[in-house]
Amino acid sequence: MAEKKDTQVKKVAIICAKASLEDVYASLVLANGAVMEGMEAKIFFTFFGLDAITKKHMKKLHTASVGNPGMRMPGGLPFPTLLGALPGVEAGVSAMMRKQMDDIDVPPVDEFLDMITAGGGEIYACKLAVDMFKLKKEDLSDHVIDIITIGDFYAMAGGEGSQIIFT
Q1: Distance between CA 35 and CA 15 in Å, rounded?
Q2: For the chain, what are the domain ranges?
Q3: Under DSSP, is residue 66 helix (H, G, I), strand (E, B) or coil?
Q4: Cα(146)–Cα(126) distance, rounded to whole angstroms?
């Protein structure tokens, strides 16, 4: 009889490349869920996802109101893309989304990062994107362990029971 392999996920490596509220929170929820389940969790923020860990932008994330096929109006009707282009609509949709998250006690980004790192999760910034956007370590949240290359991230993400998730 062949020995049965343990295929349980033990580590998640999450890549966050977008700055929309819903994409950033997807990464944060996945990482927090992993640490709460006792898994190793690492988040690699790259390109526009850096906004989530940039001190200047992390409290000002927006919901994508143009080109978002999942966007719905009250009553469940599809949200017309043209509406999202009107002045103030994106800000209003973002405020509504934040209020709905507040109503169910979803923490703001910085508190979510506190929870993830307190549980042993690790936060990294992409060197290429940091250089491209002319950022420095001091521009980033104190939760960021280091600015690393994608090669460094892949080296950390490997091993049996590991999953790489792109949000």
Answers
A1: 16
A2: 22-41+56-135+156-166
A3: coil
A4: 9
